[in-house]
Amino acid sequence: MPSYVVTGASKGIGFEFVNQLSADSGNTVFAIVRRKATATQLSNLLRKNVTILEADVTDAKALKLAAAEVSKATAGKLDYLINNAGKINHPGFTLDGFPSVEALEDDLLDNFKGNTISAIHSINAFLPLLRKGSAKKVLVLSTALGDLDVTTQGGSFGEVSYSIAKAALNMVVAKYATQYKDEGFVFLAISPGLVATSMTEGFNNAAGELKLVGSMFTKLAPPDFKGPITPEESVNKCLEVFNRWTVEETGAFVSHHGNKQWL
Ligand SMILES: NC(=O)c1ccc[n+]([C@@H]2O[C@H](COP(=O)([O-])OP(=O)(O)OC[C@H]3O[C@@H](n4cnc5c(N)ncnc54)[C@H](OP(=O)(O)O)[C@@H]3O)[C@@H](O)[C@H]2O)c1
């Protein structure tokens, strides 16, 4: 039975990964949430092959405890890790426009903890199990905003800390990929597209950020772009790319189309 861990599974894209993976009763899915009590969408799923565990992904100890729970249930093995949890603050300032040095540093550090260091903690916690698993695959949710060409050619100088933290996350993936290629691991950073979740809802309400990303969306959008896609469509495409990704291509950063078409 293939086993999966999904972080940030309470809602949005993370919930949808759990939903689609657990639809196959042959899969065992461990859904990690910050607080079980508020993860009602997930608890209402009521699938026998889904186990809900609690861990804040910025807390390395909590992740180790969650990994120990998974290990007990799987005889020490894990096949797939989907590192989905992430955060954004939408402060609406350029790098030189924060109201104080403290506000700039707080936003940078908060994003770095919630998007970059958290992924390292998650991967480190589950690596011993993944090494004993048969798939050895790790998917990490990044964003087109962490791409240098999107930034310069798309004219996007907003969402600064989030973009910087996700760009660093792409390097995290490249580092693990390089270290573990000889063991047959596949690490992949993926941008899920523009997806209708609470994260994008927050962006649409952040007038300051919308101004700063400028014409990025119009520049990136293909002629047939119809706006944000559903979590269902995004996860379906991400899983298709993840499933076909091989060790030869480990460490890449691609979109939900499996290339550099971001929308
Ligand atoms: N939506 C998009 O268009 C889009 C585009 C590019 C990339 N992404 C990336 O895709 C991933 C999922 O985003 P989403 O749109 O589904 O966002 P979302 O609806 O805001 O969901 C984020 C998930 O991450 C969890 N999370 C955040 N911080 C956590 C922490 N410290 N510990 C444990 N869980 C934590 C949240 O849990 P709580 O419920 O406890 O807050 C929630 O389950 C993120 O990495 C995001 O950066 C999304």
Describe what this molecule looks like in 3D:
The chain is α/β, with parallel strands linked by helices. The chain has one domain: NAD(P)-binding Rossmann-like Domain (Rossmann fold, 3-Layer(aba) Sandwich), CATH 3.40.50. 46% of the residues lie in helices and 13% in strands. It has helices at 12-22, 40-43, 60-74, 101-132, 148-154, 160-180, 198-204, 207-212, 216-220, 231-244, and strands at residues 3-7, 28-33, 50-54, 80-83, 137-141, 186-191, 252-255. Strands 3-2-1-4-5-6-7 form a 7-stranded parallel beta sheet, sandwiched between helices. Helix 3 (60-74) runs parallel beside helix 4 (101-132). The radius of gyration is 18 Å and the shape is globular. 44% of the residues are buried. The model has no long low-confidence stretch (mean pLDDT 96). NADP nicotinamide-adenine-dinucleotide phosphate binds at residues 8, 10-14, 34-35, 56-58, 84-87, 114, 118, 141, 143, 191-192, 194-195, 197-200. NADP nicotinamide-adenine-dinucleotide phosphate (NAP) binds next to helix 1, helix 4 and helix 7.
CATH topology: Rossmann fold
Binned strand content: 5-15%
Could you spell the SSE succession in H and E letters? Answer: EHEHEHEHEHHEHHHHE
Q: How many domains is the backbone divided into?
A: 1
Number of helices: 10
CATH architecture: 3-Layer(aba) Sandwich
Bound molecules: NADP nicotinamide-adenine-dinucleotide phosphate
* Tertiary shape: globular
Tally of DSSP β-strands: 7
Distance N to C terminus: 34 Å
Q: What is the radius of gyration?
A: 18 Å
